[in-house]
């Protein structure tokens, strides 16, 4: 039988997730769809498989969008990868954007109003 304190505070009625366990979080209450509001920038996901995609990637950055690019498919072709990185670096220099590697398989390219902080966020438990 729950104590009076349990009834008032509600302790004992909420089950805590186990340490290291998975807990589903419903984010729909935080995602507002405001009519008429146009975002100033999108974060777009791309997978680089060859040079034919380079013009579209550059166009997206010139439009003011940030790109998260998976480069794992082109890592074996060093010349293509070097050319893509060189041209994307030139785009970021032109628009005063930023470019950085994330791990070994991803690049992030940002427009002029977004800079990349290269320090890692440390979470201590």
Written overview of the protein:
InterPro entries: Cell_div_SepF/SepF-rel, SepF-like_sf, SepF_arc. This is DUF552 domain-containing protein. It comes from Candidatus Ethanoperedens thermophilum. Pfam families: SepF. By secondary structure, the chain is α+β, with helices and mostly antiparallel strands. The chain has a domain of 68 residues: Translation Initiation Factor IF3 (2-Layer Sandwich). The chain is 26% helix and 16% strand. A four-stranded mixed beta sheet has the order 1-2-4-3, covered by helices on one side. β1, α2 and β2 form a beta-alpha-beta unit. α2 runs parallel beside α3. The radius of gyration is 22 Å and the shape is globular. The two termini are 34 Å apart. The mean pLDDT is 84.
Helix count equals: 3
Mean of the pLDDT scores?
A: 84
Structural class: alpha+beta
Instruction: Name the strands of the widest sheet in spatial order.
Output: 1-2-4-3
Q: Please state roughly what percent of the residues sit in beta strands, choosing from under 5%, 5-15%, 15-25%, 25-35%, 35-45% or over 45%.
A: 15-25%
| Helix-strand pattern | HEHEHEE
Uncertain regions spanning at least 5 consecutive residues: none
Estimate the helix proportion, in percent.
25-40%
Give the key terms.
125 residues; alpha+beta; Translation Initiation Factor IF3; four-stranded mixed sheet; 3 helices; 4 strands; 26% helix; globular
